[in-house]
Amino acid sequence: MTRTRDLTSSSSSSSGGVGGSCTPRPLHAVQLDHPSHTATLLYGLNALRCKGLLLDVTLVAGGQAFTAHRVVLASCSDYFRAMFTDEMRERRQAEIHLNGVTAAGLHCLLEYAYTSRLCLNLANVQDVLAAAAHVQLLTVVEACSTYLQAQLDLDNCVDVATIAETYSLHGLRRRVYAFMSSHLHQLGKTGDFQRLSVAQLQHLLSCDYPVDCSEGQVLLTVAGWLAHCPQDRATHAPALLRALNLQEVPTHTLEHAARLPTLAEPLPPLQRALGVGRGSPAPPTGLVNSRGLELAVVKVGGFSIGGITNEITYYLGSAGRWRHLTTIPHVEQCNYGVSVVGNQLYVVGGCFNQALQENIHPFGFRYNPHHNKWTTMAPMHRERCRFSLTLMGGLLYAVGGATEDVTPATEDESPCEAYSPAQDVWRAVAGVPGARAQHGAASVEGVLYVAGGLEGERVLASCYAYTPAQDAWQPRAPMLTPRADHACVSHGGRLYVCGGWYEEDGGNGRVLADTVECYDPRGDAWSVVTRVPTPRYHAGILVVRGRLYVVGGFHSDATFDRATGVIECYDLEGGRWGVEQPYPQDIWEHVCVPLYVPRCRDDMDVLGEGK
After folding, report:
1. CATH number at residue 147
2. Which of 8, 243, 498, 537 would staple 205 via disulfide (CB 3.0–4.6 Å)?
3. b/e per residue, 154-180, with b = 16+ CB within 10 A?
């Protein structure tokens, strides 16, 4: 019980001083608030109902009669409020028949109205939903929708889709079609799949949700649906086929489908119209199917004005803004290795602060954007931070970096190891010569290149190439400019380095490396291709569809306002710089990678800080 006090003046007075002058005397007003009153009121109303007292209306549903209080019904249902307060015929009737409402459904609604308790199960949920929709008891409608979402499986998803469409439950409808899409391969083998109406199948094929099978399997699944009743369904084949991404269907699958009776007539004209059937098309690397997915620029962790963060955000061109994706499932950390394998994001190693001490760890995590799920992976043989993690030949290579075991500056070589995602196993490989951290690395045509970095306090320009077959590193031509805290990327059979810093003569300060250098493995030579309009280091750098993106970073080491959210991009083929919409916050020491992300996600936008 809470109590508030209000001081007010009153006409009461007390004499004081000469002549009996009066002074106002305050009264204490107390306002009482009993949290239990709501429950007491409900209990009392239900007790009146159970004892048959003050009842003033009878509801009839499914041949059964239920007595109630008009005021209770009107207080929680727009349907009954209008019935009992507007000039409607039922306002004067003592008995009201609710057609289309079952006795079981009405019983549950009355229990909820008088007790706030709702018992749902698969046997009664449809009755309750129908009754709640009829009398416009929206809280119960929402509860039924939430319950059905939680119960979705392959055995009931088709029925739930029909329920969602019958009662205009838009959120449930989106959820059930997303579920059917993500289980399409299994669902297509069930008898329930054949119960989908043509409109439902058309929507399933047209909605923008990821699927669990190739587009060739989607095509054969549609053929199976058409074959179930070809006399009635064959006329719908052209419309259904137009909802497929036939350009991702391999030639041999198209040829097989074209021989099926239900597809022999509509498929070849569509093939010719779309210009497919030549070669062996495939979805982008790492994807089973590109349905519902879009290539995004993903920002992993880093720092902002609020400090270090494990937050991962992404930018979709179709949405035009940055949104939250997920969070690394570890204590807040930095300087880890990041890579993408099979469209799964790997975050490995790194360091975190504990009691003002830097702790380096070997653990790793992988994130599946299709299922929005993190899983753990085998830890590295040694803890690492400020190292490189690079995909080559289906393996992840962890090269150099700082470690707890040995100080890198005292080593003759930096230890390296390779990880097999298929086997979840790390194995040691040849170490790169010299101590090396805060370097860049990328693979080009089966060769792993490592360039620049720090050896103790010295900024490096050296470059080495690793060939797995020989398990050996070979020196290559050094970069034109030494640099650390930069990035290496590959495109078109060449290696590009961008960003970073080096020490000015005398070692009195850092100089930003403003050039983008290109390495041609065929000539073992470096060249400058352009200069970054806004030089910075600790930036997120990646290549997406031939465009080099530079996201955020430090642009000064001397001024207070030294971080930036600027995003610039360079067309590697056209040779032109452009400016993209800036990141909503100033960010640095993050990593950026390309990753296919589902378009249909309900994520919050990234909010700016001090913008």
Report:
1. 3.30.710.10
2. 243
3. eeebbebbbbbbebebeebbbbbbbbb
**Whether the predicted pLDDT of 5 surpasses 70:** no
67 domain residue, yes or no? yes
Cβ atoms of 397 and 380 closer than 8 Å = no
Q: Cα–Cα distance between 54 and 52 in angstroms, integer?
A: 7
Tokens standing for residue 342 = 């099979």
Residue range 558-569, pLDDT digits in tens: 655 577 899 999
Q: Which residues pair with 298 in a beta bridge?
A: 314, 593
198 backbone dihedrals φ, ψ, rounded to 5°? -60, -35
Give the β-pairing of 364-368 and 373-377: antiparallel
480 token code pair: 């034109």
Sheet containing 321-327, strands listed edge to edge, beginning at the edge strand earlier in sequence: 321-327, 311-316, 293-300, 591-598
Is 70 exceeded by the pLDDT of residue 12? no
Q: Which of 545, 446, 451 is nearest to 498 (CA)?
A: 451
Instruction: For residue 54, tell me if it sits in a domain.
Output: yes
Evaluate whether residue 57 is within a structural domain: yes
pLDDT digits (tens, 9 = 90+) for 404-441: 765 444 468 899 999 999 999 999 999 999 999 999 99
Q: Is 386 left (phi over 0), alpha (psi -120 to 50) or beta?
A: left
Q: Are strands 303-304 and 591-598 parallel, antiparallel or unpaired?
A: unpaired
Q: Range of 101's domain?
A: 31-151
Which residue, chain included where needed, has tokens 């097999």?
Answer: 420
The pLDDT value recorded for residue 558 is: 61
Q: Which two tokens stand for residue 209?
A: 């949700």
What is the value of pTM for the model shown? Answer: 0.84
Q: Would you say residue 6 has pLDDT above 70?
A: no
The pLDDT of residue 25:
65
Q: Based on the structure, what is the number of domains in the chain?
A: 1
